[in-house]
């Protein structure tokens, strides 16, 4: 178990991993009910996309290109372990729906 507190806020993260249990691969899609996903606000979406791809992740936004959100671009990616991550700029424009494959 790992935990972290976001400095200056009341936000705490706790990460758990279950060990010594049988596992099998599966891939939930972003629109499926209940898939684990994380949304991260980043300064530069394109640079973050490049870092994800260089680290073995993949771009899963429909068409493989970021979506224009009005104040910047956003994208859905998967990390190498399959976790869906939404990368979006520091703005409050609503995200477009149905942006995944």
| Number of DSSP strand runs | 7
Structure classification = mainly beta
Mean of residue pLDDT values: 79
Distance linking N and C termini: 32 Å
Report what the structure shows:
This protein is mainly beta. It has a domain at 29-88: 2,3-Dihydroxybiphenyl 1,2-Dioxygenase, domain 1 (Roll), CATH 3.10.180. 10% of the residues lie in helices and 28% in strands. The protein is built from one helix and seven strands; from the N terminus they run E-E-E-H-E-E-E-E. The longest helix is centred in the middle third of the chain and has 10 residues, at 45-54. The protein is globular, with a radius of gyration of 15 Å.
Q: What's the SSE blueprint?
A:
Blueprint: E1 2-5, E2 12-15, E3 37-41, H1 45-54, E4 58-59, E5 67-68, E6 73-78, E7 84-88
Parallel strand pairs: 3-7
Antiparallel strand pairs: 1-2, 4-6, 5-6, 6-7
In short:
With 101 residues, the chain is mainly beta. The chain has one helix spanning 45-54; strands at 2-5, 12-15, 37-41, 58-59, 67-68, 73-78, 84-88.
